[in-house]
Amino acid sequence: MAVLRKDRNTVIGILGGGQLARMSAMQAIQLGFDVAILEKEKKSPAGILTKKEFIGWVDQKKIFDEFIEASDIITLENEFIDYKYLEYIENKGKKVIPDSKTISLIQDKFIQKTTFQNSGIPVPKFLNVNETTTYEFIKSELGSKFVLKSKKMGYDGYGNATVKNKSEFTEALQRLSERHTEIYAEKFVPFVKELAIMVVRTKKEIKTYPIVETIQKNHICHTVIAPARVNEKIIRSVNEIAVEAVRSINGFGIFGIEFFLLEDDSVLVNEIAPRPHNTGHYTIEACTISQFENHIRAVLDLPLGNTELVQPYAVMINLLGKRNGVGVVQNYSEALKSNNVHLHIYGKAESRIGRKMGHITIIGSDLNKILLQAKKIEKQIII
Ligand code: ADP
Q1: From the CA of 270, how far away is ligand 1's center (Å)?
Q2: Looking at the chain, which runs of residues are DSSP E strands?
Q3: CATH of the domain at 230
Q4: Which residue's CA is the closest to the ligand 1 atom numbered 11?
């Protein structure tokens, strides 16, 4: 049966109920679709938007089966679900976008980097690390500064450790091995900027969003500036490489691709995310059609919307928890005092220091002005 129902609302199942699922679901609902959410706990940011809220996870067969049964097509909000569970869905005759094969090439970062390298996509030099790999060997291959990364389940820098000497190596390897069984090493890249781009693809179309600059604090994306202040040559190569990266994994749906920009204007791919991405949140107000809406369109293989900026500049700043407590903004009137700020709060029950609780976006024609304004507002909001 065709995925798009004519007898009732099409139901898009989303594996996960966090903020990415929430913002995707809001767009799905706007287009007249329903969503089903599978999440471990009740009242997740996306779960509260639908009556089709399934509490459990992919390893709980009964609830997983019920979720699959309730969905016409399924997508995901993170790459950590073992691709075998996606194969299970596919074996039941339901589509997953992006599919199990694409996810199998992404969820292990070592396989991801190897796949890219084999397709001629530039990545930092890397090598496998096992029990017999010595510090001296890694140093001779990658230089004296390198990054140890867990192959799976790393996010917001958890699972990464920068190493500059042997004692740091021993300490980092032990710390990472406690939680992550498989590790690889990557050359430390002395980047001048970090860039990112969203790519959305259906069977008929492939579109890119503007390239953005991303500024991390403690390995977490903090500020996004759109468009990135880079020259034409860099714009061209990032676009080409990003499209090639998505093709190399046979990806459909939306993808966020992170890059390192080097001093000589060359770029290296850091990683790809097979889903809406934090660096694309600005598109909700700053682009004609947002990453979330285009993601939903791509999942259903519908025509894609225009990805261009509607104003010359946009700034997005993440709102991280500033305290431990209820996840509600404590000073709404102050937070909304600026009449051009777009405030997004994710509806998480609990705030914790450093947890992603929401974001703000400001669009305009004077970058310095909106950047200063966004920074000021971010300082004021208490959540
Ligand atoms: P995660 O998947 O946990 O977000 P990443 O591998 O993207 O982790 O790394 C998070 C951040 O750490 C990057 O945005 C970058 O600032 C820094 N980083 C990661 N790899 C390297 C590297 N090889 N060289 C220099 N900095 C790096």
Answers
A1: 7
A2: 11-15, 34-39, 53-55, 73-76, 126-129, 146-150, 160-163, 183-187, 193-201, 206-208, 212-217, 220-226, 253-261, 267-273, 313-320, 325-326, 342-345, 350-351, 356-364
A3: 3.30.470.20
A4: 219
Say if residue 209 is in the same domain as residue 336.
Answer: yes
Counting from 1 in the atom list of ligand 1, the atom nearest the Cα of 188 is 24
pLDDT digits 0-9 by tens, 164-209: 999 999 999 888 888 767 999 999 999 999 999 999 999 999 999 9
- pLDDT tens string 246-270: 999 999 999 999 999 999 999 999 9
Q: Are residues 213 and 303 in the same domain?
A: yes
Residue 82, ligand 1, Cβ within 6 A:
no
Site to probe by mutation for ligand 1, drawn from 147, 187, 191, 222 as the one with most ligand atoms within 8 Å of Cβ, is 147
Cα gap 9→363, rounded to integer Å? 34
Contact 179, 215 (CB under 8 A): no
Q: Residue 178 is part of which domain span?
A: 125-187
- State the pLDDT at residue 180: 66
| Cα separation values, 237 from 145, 208, 232, 242, Å | 27, 13, 9, 8
In one letter, which amino acid is 200? V
Residue 157 and residue 231 in one domain: no
Q: How far is the CA of 158 from the centre of ligand 1 (A)?
A: 10
Identify the segments of the chain with pLDDT beneath 50: none
Provide the 8-state DSSP code for 8.
S
- Mean pLDDT, the chain, rounded, equals 95
Q: Parallel, antiparallel, or unpaired: how do β-strands 193-201 and 206-208 relate?
A: antiparallel
| Residue 156 belongs to domain with CATH number | 3.30.1490.20
Residue-by-residue DSSP string for 204-262: S-EEEPPPEEEEEETTEEEEEEES----HHHHHHHHHHHHHHHHHTT--EEEEEEEEEP
**What are 233's two structure tokens?**
């040559």
Say if residue 98 is preceded by a cis peptide, omega within 30 of 0: yes
Q: Which atom of ligand 1 is nearest to the CA of 221?
A: 14
- What pLDDT sits at residue 175? 86
Residue 204 domain-assigned?
yes
